[in-house]
Amino acid sequence: MLVIDAEQIHQTLNFPALISALRKTFSKPAGMPQRQVFSLDETSAHSDAFAVLPSWNEQTIAVKAFTYFPNNPSKSADLESLYSKIMIFDRKTGIPQALVDGTSVTYWRTAAISALGSDFLSREDSSKLLVCGTGRLASFMALAHASVRPITEIMIWGRNPKSALKVVDIVKSSRPEIDVKVCDDLESAVRNADIISCATGSPKPLFDGTWVQEGTHTDFVGNHNNDRRECDTKLILKSDVYVDSKINVFAEAGEILLPIAEGVYSTDRVKGELAQLCDASLKGRTDDKQITLFKTVGTALADLVGAQIAFKELNET
Fold first, then answer.
1. Residue ranges per domain, the chain?
2. One short Pfam family name for this protein (predicted)?
3. Which phi-psi region, left, alpha or beta, contains residue 72 (left: φ > 0; alpha: ψ -120 to 50)?
4. Fold of 2-105+301-315
5. Mean local confidence (pLDDT), 209-238
6. Spatial contact of 307 and 257, defined as CB atoms under 8 Å apart
7. pLDDT (0 to 100) of residue 61
8. Which CATH architecture describes the domain 121-299?
């Protein structure tokens, strides 16, 4: 059985191949029960947590397990808030194949899923990308979106300009031909962006939904809590909304659940989920004036695909 570490994941995966594999996998029948997230402190809604995400397709059975301890970084600079592993098994025999670093796969698959959604939902001529967030995921989001659309300008916004500049440098090193810069005027950037991709830990909406103009595509990946959200109700109401997985989003995403609690939205207004876009049973963008929104909380099947690609590549070398 292979043990695949983070460095091997980063060396093995690339966005064109990963996005193509995700599109193919999500277009076919697969098993993916609702993921189970367990609070380790029932007195707090945002406490330490442990989660288990199972899935399977024709080739592979996978289970991802992760721990989330949000206060870890304050305890020690050596501690991460998230630790994750993915175990994969051969679908035909059940034989264990690999233990894979799940944190690095999560970066890649989260960004790739957003880019895949954009490939269905953003305008084909989209050239201006706004990324909200300056964490480790931010550069992945920027590079993934730039792999599916003719992006010529990327704006990075965050509350800490120094962190935003670090993301700019990382993206520039991979795509020097793209104009990448720190965003110092969020309203102007939102109003002028073709694609807005948000990956933050913010518990409250990042911007006023009225700023988003016709033809814009937005996606939100940072929030996994039913009482928090990265976008406001105004944006949800003016958008055609799609999700990565209804079973998970309808249980966890405040972006959808809070407007429902307000009595102004319902789950039947969500147009559909990623698998329907991939198998062509659902059409994505229909015109250039449509505002589209893609909400993701992450899926076990996407973890499976990332781990599966790395295993195949490394098992053959």
1. 2-105+301-315, 121-299
2. OCD_Mu_crystall
3. alpha
4. ornithine cyclodeaminase, domain 1 (3.30.1780)
5. 96
6. no
7. 98
8. 3-Layer(aba) Sandwich (3.40)
